[in-house]
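Internal ticket #5521
Category: modeling
Description: The requester needs a full-assembly model to guide mutagenesis choices. All entity lines are attached below as received. Residue total reported by intake: 609.
Assigned to: D.W.
Attached entities:
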Amino acid sequence: MAMADVPRGQTKASAPEKDFRTKLQEWLPKLVLSPSLALVAIFVYGFIAFTIYLSFTDSRILPFVGADGQPTYDLIGFANYEKLFKLSHWEIALTNMAVFAGLYIVVCTAIGLMLAIFLDQKIRGEGMLRPLYLYPMALSFIVTGTAWKWFLDPGIGLENIMISWGWESFTFDWIKNRDYAIYTVVLAAVWQTSGFVMAMFLAGLRGIDNEILKAAQMDGASNWNLYRRIIIPQLRPAFLSAFVILSHLAIKTFDLVIAMTGGGPGRATELPATFMYSYTFGRNQMGIGASSAVIMLMTIAAIMIPYLYAELREKK
Amino acid sequence: MAVASSDTAIRTGRVTRTFLYLVLLLFALFYMLPLYVMLVNSVKPLSEITGGGMMSLPQTWTVEPWTKAWNTAQIGVESTGLAPYFWNSIKMVVPAVAISTILGALNGYVLTKWRFKYDTILFGLMLFACFIPFQMVLIPMATVLGKLGLAGTTTGLVLVHVVYGIGFSTLYFRNYYAAFPTELVRAAQIDGAGFFQIFWRILLPSSGPITVVCVIWQFTNIWNDFLFGASFAAGNAQPMTVALNNLVQSSTGVKEYNVHFAGAILAALPTLLVYIVAGRYFVRGLMAGSVKG
């Protein structure tokens, strides 16, 4: 707040045109910020409000205003939400989300933490390994989804490879199997982001004071105890960040499913994001689509808002 | 990120170390696997893939899958290859990255050096916008793009990516400028330098690293976007990711896996190159976007 005052004393005595310049200088910062704020206000918060409104209507297709100038929809209260939670399709999407998010977060965190701890043991070639673990983050989910889709395809991928290598009875058809397909999506998603989680934990590990560890070691603590009692508890901020980032990525997962399975076989890998998309654009059920998006937003908000609040407050 | 401590407290025996290296190498193989599969199968004839040779090196090397993916593969209804869509993505990414970075730099400057009441709350609102599920804006955005006459166009996509990219670019510059000595700004002000002069002469010259971080992050994110491209781009304005998905999912004719893999690499190439050349900055952007908000 310190910099808000432009030196005012000198200008007071001078001509009115200079006064205008001073005023302009005072307003300039806010003026410069305002286009971005306006964009965010309209395109983010205005649109959120609009989608929430839409979720209380029975609108089906664009446009929302008919040729006679009358809106093409009626307000129907919470009927969309009631309908939504009665749809088996949505129930499947939620169940899949729970399985996917749970496994994805836990496995990513476990692998990330393990790799970070291993890499922190003065490993030769760390500089080579780290970029190898992290490069998937730079790729599009459509690209990696395509690679995993064909690698796991029983016709040409892993199963076929094993058979051609002489393991005749080998079967691996998870991606085509209704009960297991969701786990192949977990595999691809873990592959894509676990290196990133590794980097977060590694940064945390490198920030720990070595003197404490040495002191504990003098007292005869084993490596295992050092990690369990001292190091891992100190990584709490990294755990929190990893959880927040992973859970928001999980809820937004869309491209990967589209590329790998298209939500199938059947509806076996349908997630809220793909549900919303198909109801809105495929089935012209805008009201239902909007209400499912609202549920997604509320879930993410419940995680992100406290996190951002805490992070921004700390800074002050 | 601190420098690796010169004398670590943890000591490990030889057996443990062998085990560590083994696990780390196995994971390296795991992370390389899809890239290997894509590369090796993009240069072999289709018959070798369907014959169970997905993991083997090609017996006959061929660049045909690449030329086919680029020039003649059927995307949707037309056999144009991926080339026009690649250029669509370029035409979308370049202006979107440039505009969102410039806006982010100016916003970060205002939010740290010209602070005013409630600026942190406003920034928080901008930042939260990065994390919303974009399903929340698809329907009104489709309507508004239609009203603006931008429905289905690359210009429309540029607008969309600028709007939803501002949050992160502002975050980068804000955190970077927060560490920049405010005394320098104040001194320049007393010397009579104006708002833009201070930005241009004092902050911008030292903004190189964060600009690289921001450009790389925006480039990667916007290039890799699928949801907005699939929702708002008409057939001939589709970005690369959408075209690749159309190529792979098309149900007509023989599935040409080698062409799919070549196409996937083509779609990955720009971001992969950026990662290879400037991976350090990419990781910095990744961390800045997560560890400290």
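Resolution: model delivered.
Comment from assignee: Chain A touches chain B through 121 residues (CB under 8 Å).
Ticket closed.
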